[in-house]
């Protein structure tokens, strides 16, 4: 955005559109300011992706803390926030997971109104296909768990799935569709709009969003954080929140501690645009692929993570072939489409495939990472819980189970087995 320090955003409305149309749209202000960093802030958040911006927003909205800088080594939303397949759901098995993801889904449902910015939330429904007897048992178990958690999900038959999604082949010879776990409230949102909406709201509160500002070192003294050294100079802070997804271990090493995560590339692709044919979000975990159709008509396709640790943000042909080959049997029409583009993001994987929202061995440094391949759906709930942790110094009920101490205590929140997929 512009280097102008102007922070006025105004309220978006039909009247504002009409007013600006009358003056040839010359009166729109920048959505957020891009100031130079000050010497000191109460809180510095490293990472201007969805989770970092949401944390800043709820620090201001819920806790009245606005002396905040959100610094980003690249451009706002240029990491995993802009590199995912936009799936939103909360049908998790473990109680702690269901609680934070359902909080996130509830916040997503009203987020456009809350931010006064259209995030294009589309609760079109999410269907997780059961294509083995093991998945049938697992998903029925999840339905029962969700009932106890007050998360609305249901088991659906193959016949109903065919009615809901005519393009599907339910009689595949290797992987027939035996049923599915359906969450009507699940869906998608526009990933860029989520970041932009939070950024606009944070800037309007007086927070500083500082792009192209890479952290080169973390200063500590007497076991407490003192400052971060960046490519735009030294920035002092009382508290530091590290929210940088796949680069979390790199930043933690600068501060003198280690995190139990691995960084792996996750790839996705979209097809050429076609007429509407898929109004659900589909996850086929046995063949490890997921599918939805964008507003522009593109088929958005994602798969599993790379089989080796890396920091790549690009795709690879062998992974595209593996993902598409797996989905073609269940969705034969995909075989006739051309690929439009592909990309990759760096995801941070914990051993139990659940996130970390925690204090750290260094005083007043807090970390939010480990969301793996499920980070986009958690953005509002993650920001809400992380803001509470940073503001109070201790976790609230949403973050309490996701501390670093669980790895020392063997108190895992195992979603890898529960979900049967990378997240």
UniProtKB/TrEMBL annotation:
Its cofactor is FAD; FMN. Its EC number is 1.5.3.24. Gene3D superfamilies: D-Amino Acid Oxidase, subunit A, domain 2 (3.30.9.10), FAD/NAD(P)-binding domain (3.50.50.60). SUPFAM superfamilies: FAD/NAD(P)-binding domain. GO terms for molecular function: nucleotide binding; sarcosine oxidase activity. Pfam families: DAO. Residues 42-87 form the Rhodanese domain. It is found in: Cytoplasm. Keywords: Cytoplasm, FAD, Flavoprotein, FMN, Nucleotide-binding, Oxidoreductase. GO terms for cellular component: cytoplasm. One of its GO terms (biological process) is tetrahydrofolate metabolic process. It catalyses: sarcosine + O2 + H2O = formaldehyde + glycine + H2O2; sarcosine + (6S)-5,6,7,8-tetrahydrofolate + O2 = (6R)-5,10-methylene-5,6,7,8-tetrahydrofolate + glycine + H2O2. Belongs to the SoxB family. This is Sarcosine oxidase subunit beta.
